[in-house]
Amino acid sequence: MAERKESWTSLASLLGTLAFCQTFLQLVLPPELRLASLKFLTRALRCFSSYCYFDVAEMDGVNTNELYNAVQLYLSSFASTSASASRLSLTRARNSSVTTFGLSNNDSIADVFDGVAVQWEHAVTQRQSQPSSWRSIPDVFDGVAVQWEHAGTQRQSQPSSWRSIPDEKRGFTLRIKKRDKDLILNSYLDRIMDKANDIRRNNQERLIYTNSRGSESRGRPWEAVPFKHPSTFDTLAMDPEKKRDIMEDLRDFAAGQAFYQRTGRAWKRGYLLYGPPGTGKSSMIAAMANFLGYEIYDLGLTEVPSNSELRKLLMKTSSKSIIVIEDIDCSVNLSNGSKAPKAPPLQSYSADPDTPDAVSGGKNWNNTMTLSGLLNFTDGLWSCCGSERIFVFTTNHIDKLDPALLRSGRMDMHICMSYCSYPALKILLHNYLGSEGEDLSEVAASELREAVEKAKMTPADISEVLIKKRRNREKAVSELLEVMKARAEGNEEYGGLREKCESNGVEEEEEEKRALESPKGVSDREDDSCKKAEDQEEKKAN
Ligand SMILES: Nc1ncnc2c1ncn2[C@@H]1O[C@H](COP(=O)(O)OP(=O)(O)OP(=O)(O)O)[C@@H](O)[C@H]1O
């Protein structure tokens, strides 16, 4: 007992002595000297430490240090879930729904990279007041030199030329074990820059670009507007398995930099979307862009007069983008010369309105853009200019495409968007009525299943019915059933008519005409187009 009392007494006297020394030093030493000795002590301690430290200051002279911003964004991506950060700052930009987490002043956070533990500390100190000469700015008016001096104290608003230099000095300090420094420093900083770029891209508004005639001469080959299409893979009505395959393919592509490098391939991928109108080809493109966070370049080939213009346009697309050519079968006469042109070559015209062609067709066609010019970008030497780009071509008539476009290796994935199946219908029911039909009676569900297979309606047709009646779920379902049954009957009638025509030797072309004119009937040939195309591809592959 006496021993414990003695130790408490000696501890108290030690603390008293330390307090006395501190007060004495504060009285005797001027603040500058105190600061210098503190710095010296810190440095001396760091010499013996097993850690090394890297300061990342917010300002590099008068310029902002990019690395500081990147570190801030990077740390904010996991600060809210990190157990090591005890106090976080929260910020949200005006008109933004994104909350950014940051490290509070002088707080620290741990991170692990390649199995190596590191620590970041955010240091904020008050900037020492600047000499008055620094706070003044010279000006000359009518040959007379004048000088402006800002007489405000810190934190008061400053002239705009100083506004970029904050009153506080902010910086991050990275602490790494000395033995790990050479192992990870560069790759760790690269990873931080990449991650920060990704976060920036996800936070900022994405754009959809389009080209128009003469925009190149105006100095802006692409015109852009914010891209806000709400379509996602969740809202897209299609076979879930097919959807999963596409999503996996996209995910592999986006994460495949090393793979493409290793295999000597340009980091790009091509998708051909085909199927009847209203089956969701455009919605699929929007879903792809939203899934990957990419921007879209909607390339109107009719506005591109020549291969060289096309090259200029494509060279000005950014990476992490989807380059879309919709309705490739009808917007241009892209034949390699292997097929006689069926339609006027819409893609090329001169600006001269007085030429005979312009008079006759409204445009003066001057066919200088070719399929090989286009394929050079999707497939050839130029495909490597820019990286991480996706090409998407869409068509309602895959059978009308030049075989060169379909050759293996051209478009990596051919995706058939077809009529609504029962699994796809369930997604539409969920989108519009808030249930996947699980609250339907067994009879209604099986009726729907049967009717949707026979009706051969596009998701667009079905959406139309559901959206009209979405306030009353039961009515919506019963009306949909009615419409689908009527459509199925129409198809059957049409099927019978077709058989009769065939037995009477009516030409195929006439049959096609009837199909187009029929308000309800869907040609079996159209219905089977996806299957046929898929079968053909399978045969080719074998
Ligand atoms: N698979 C689908 N999933 C969800 N909605 C769809 C789907 N297909 C069509 N829709 C609905 O129909 C509308 C039109 O579809 P979309 O423009 O994507 O079809 P498309 O196949 O590109 O047609 P087109 O060939 O005429 O361009 C969409 O806005 C969407 O509301």
Topology at a glance:
Blueprint: H1 2-28, H2 31-48, E1 51-57, E2 59-60, E3 63-64, H3 66-79, E4 88-91, E5 100-103, E6 108-113, E7 116-126, E8 136-141, E9 144-149, H4 160-163, E10 168-177, H5 178-203, E11 207-210, E12 223-226, H6 240-254, H7 257-263, E13 268-274, H8 281-292, E14 295-298, H9 307-315, E15 321-325, H10 328-331, E16 349-350, H11 356-361, E17 364-365, H12 371-378, E18 389-395, H13 403-406, E19 413-416, H14 422-433, H15 442-455, H16 459-468, H17 473-503, H18 508-517, H19 524-527, H20 529-541
Parallel strand pairs: 11-14, 13-18, 13-19, 14-15, 15-18
Antiparallel strand pairs: 1-10, 2-3, 4-5, 6-7, 7-10, 8-9, 11-12, 16-17
Helix pairs in contact: 3-5, 14-16, 15-17, 16-17
**Strand neighbour order, sheet with most strands:** 12-11-14-15-18-13-19
Number of discrete domains: 3
Rg is 34 Å
Low-confidence stretches: 152-165, 337-365, 511-526
Give the rounded overall mean pLDDT.
77
Q: Which percent range fits the helix content?
A: 40-55%
| CATH architecture descriptor name of the largest domain | 3-Layer(aba) Sandwich
**Number of helical elements:** 20
- What would CATH call the class of the largest domain? Alpha Beta
Number of E strands: 19
Write out the CATH superfamily name of the largest domain: P-loop containing nucleotide triphosphate hydrolases
Biggest sheet statistics: 7 strands, mixed
Distance between the termini: 92 Å
Structural class comes to: alpha/beta
- Taken from the alpha-carbon principal axes, the silhouette is elongated
Q: Ligands in the structure?
A: adenosine-5'-triphosphate
Beta-strand fraction estimate: 15-25%
Catalytic activity: ATP + H2O = ADP + phosphate + H(+)
Pfam families: AAA, AAA_assoc, AAA_lid_At3g28540
Organism: Eucalyptus globulus
Keywords: ATP-binding, Hydrolase, Magnesium, Nucleotide-binding
